[in-house]
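Attaching the record inline, Q. Sequence:
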Amino acid sequence: MRWLVRGDIDGFFGLALDNLVQFLLIDSLCRFVLGLPPDLLYGRILPGAAVSLLVGNVFYARQAMQLAKETGRSDVCALPYGINTVSLLAYVFLVMLPAKLAAQAAGAADPARVAWQAGLVACLGSGLITIAGSFVAERVRKMTPRAALLSTLSGIALGFISLGFLFRTFANPLVGLTTLAIVLLIYFGRVRFKGGLPGGLVAIALGTLLAWVTHMAPVGERPAGAISLHLPLPVLGDLFSALSSGAWLRYLAVIVPMALFDLIGSLQNVESAEAAGDAYPTRPALMFNGVGTVVAALFGSCFPATIYIGHPGWKALGARAGYSILNGGFATIVCLTGTLGWLAWAVPIDAGMAIVLWIGIVITAQSFQATPKEHAPAVVLGLLPGVGAWGALMAKSGLRVAGFGSPNGPEFSDKLVPAFVNAGTYIQGAFALEQGFIFTSMLLSASTVAVIERRFETAGKWCLAGVLFCVLGLIHSYRFTPADTVVNLTPAWWHALGYAAMAMVFFSARFLTEPSDGASH
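Structure, as predicted:
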C-alpha cells in the first residue's frame, strides 16, 4: 500500500475541517470564557495540541501501513485521530473555569495560569486512565455485542454530527445543498470528476466561492497581527506545581468519567473499523490514544486527543494512510504559525460541512449493515440515548438564548422541570439520559441483543451492570449549575432501582414465559 493515494486528499479535507472546528472552539472558549492571555493560548495550548495530533496521526498512519503489509491489502484505512470535543467542553466548564473562579476568590496573583494548570492535570489524568484501560479493553470488546458498540456511535453521529450540520445546511441552502449534491454524487453515486479532481476539494472550493459571493465569507474581522512561529516546549514545571498543590483532587469527579467516556468511545471506534474491514489490535491502538493525550499535557495542551469517529466514512472516501499524515501536518502548521484566525476568516465551516454530514450518514448506516439484521431493534434502542443527549443539549441552548444562565438572568434549577412537564416534555429524563449516555447506550443495546437471542440471564447481567453504574454515579446522576446540568458522581438511586427491576424481569423470564413461535429457550 502506498503512503498517499488520491482518496487521501478527500479524507484529509474532511478530517482537517473537523479538527479546524475544534481549534476554533478552543480559541473561542479560552479567550472569551476563560480569559486566557495570548501567550498561554497561542504559545502553549495550541502548540501542545499540535504535538499530540502530529505524533498520534503519524502513529495511526504507521499502524495502517503495518496492517496492510501483514494482510497483503492495499485498501487499509488509518484510524482517524483528533481532539475530543466532549472532554474539551467538560474541562473548560467543569475544571478550568471553576479553578479560575476559585483562584480569583482566593486572591491569586494569576488566576488564568491556575485555570490552565488545572486543565493540564485533567488532561494528564485522562491519558493515564486511558493507558491503564487499554489492558482490559479487549476483554470488554469481546463480551459486548457489536450492535451495542456501533449503535452508540450511530447516536452520536446522528445527533451531534448529522442533525447539527443538517440544520446548518438548510440555514444556508445555496452553499449547503450545492456542496451536499457534490458529495452525494461522488461518494454515493461512485463517479469521479474528469481530470481526477478530488471530490472533497471540489466541494470545499465551490463552497468557499459561493460563501464569498453570497457574503457569508469572510467570517468576522480580518485577524490582527503578523503570523509568527510558536514552537512547542515542555511545561513540566507547571504540571509539577499543579500536582503538588493537591487542588486537582476536587476535579476527579470530572476527570474519571471523562476518561472512561473517551476510553469506551475509542474502543467503539476500533470495533467500527473492524466492521469496515480493518481489524486493528485493540491494546496498542487504545494505549497510544492515551499516550497522545499525555503528550498533549506535557507540552501545554489541556485537551485530550482521541481515536475519532468516522473510520468507515473515510475508508469509503478512498482514504488510506496519507490522510492521517496530512491532517497531522495541517494541525502543526495551523497551531504553530498563528494562521488559525486567517483560515477561519477566509473559509467558513459551511464550505465543507457536507463532507462531515456524509460521514455521519455512513456511520449510522454501518450500525445496521455490519450487524445481524435481527439485531436491528437493539441498534435503534442503542442510538436513542445519543439522540436524546443531543436533544437535551438543544433544550439547554434554547434556555440560554432565553437568558437563563446569563449574568443578569435566571439560573438553571429544578424550577424549570414543572414548566417543561406541563408542556409535555419530561426534561428531567433528558437531563438524566444525557449523563453517561455512551454507557447507557451500550447497556440497553447489549441487553436487547441478549433478549432477542433469548439469553435472558445475560440480559439480566447487563442490567445489573446498569445498577452498578448508577450507584457509582457514572450514568443518570446530574446536578444543576447556574448555566447547565453536569455530571454528579453520586448514586442515582431511582435509576439503579429501575435497572434492578429490569434484571429481575429478565432473570424470571425462563420460569414465567414460554416461546410463542415454537422455539426453545
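The longest helix spans residues 38-71. The two ends are 48 Å apart (CA to CA).

More tomorrow.
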